[in-house]
Amino acid sequence: MASDGMTSFQFPSIKNKMKTPLGAYDVWEIVENGFIDSQDESAISAIQKEILKELRKERQERLSFSSIKH
Q: What is the reported pTM?
């Protein structure tokens, strides 16, 4: 059992409730598969760093609960 008291019985219900809004923003795959964000940027070009910066910004905007419209 998780430390917050969630049981295996409760998880499918919560999963189904979260899958719809997160799937609408194309981020559900991150929940299921996880995400590894490399912090080592020493081997990439300036253009690649700018693209990475924009992708991180976009990801943060998508994951922000304030951007989820009800």
A: 0.39
The answer to whether 7 touches 1, Cβ cutoff 8 Å, is yes
Alpha-carbon dihedral angle through residues 70, 29, 35, 58, given to the nearest 10 degrees: -50
Euclidean distance between CA atoms 40 and 38, whole angstroms: 6
Number of neighbouring beta carbons within 10 Å of residue 28:
16
Nearest to 11 by CA among 2, 20, 3: 2
- Tell me which residue has tokens 């919560």: 14
Please, which pLDDT band fits residue 70 given cuts at 50, 70 and 90? low
Give residue 25's identity as a one-letter amino acid code: Y
